[in-house]
Amino acid sequence: MKRSNRLREWVEIIVVALVVALLIENYIFGFAVVQGSSMEPTIKNNDRLLVIKFAYNNKEPQVGDLVIFTPPGNHKKGELFVKRIVAKEEEHFALREGILHINDEVVEEDYVRSEEYIQRVYPFVQGIVPKNSVFVMGDNRNDSNDSRNFGFIEEKQIKGKVVLRVWPLNEITAFVGKN
Q1: Does residue 1 surpass a pLDDT of 60?
Q2: pTM above 0.90, yes or no
Q3: What is the DSSP letter of 70?
Q4: Residue 49: enclosing H or E segment and its boundaries?
C-alpha cells in the first residue's frame, strides 16, 4: 500500500510539473533558435533567444522592438520569424535608396548591417501602417524576407518580444529598451 501511494505521489508531481512547464512555455516565456542571417549583425544564425510572450498584453509594440511572429503567406506550419519593428500604426514609412524614412524624417539605424544596399523591387516600400499593425524589417537588409515582401504584421500575429540572447554564452545580450 505504501509503495502505490508513493508512486501515485510521484506521478502527481510529474504531471503538475509538466502542466506548469507547458503553461510557462505557452504564455510566459520561451526560447527560440535563430535560423538564417536576416537579423545580422544584431542576431546571428544559431543564436538562442529568450522571448517574453506576454510583453504586449497591456502594452503596444514599439519601434525598435525585436519580435517573433507568425509570417503571413505560405510558410511552414509553426514557422516563426524574428524581425525589428521599424514603423507602427498610423506612421508613414518610405524606403528611398535603402534609407528608411518615418513621417518624412530619416531614421538613424546604427543596427543595420553595414554594406551597400542592393536595390530591389519590393511590393511594400512606402505607405501608412494600418491600425493594430506594424511594419518589420531585418537588420540585414540585403538578405531579409520582411514587410517589404509580405506587408504589414497584425499585432495578433506577434508571439513575443525578444529580450535576451542567451547563447552563445560569450555574446549574452539584453535587448530591453534598445532601439
Answers
A1: no
A2: no
A3: P
A4: strand 48-52
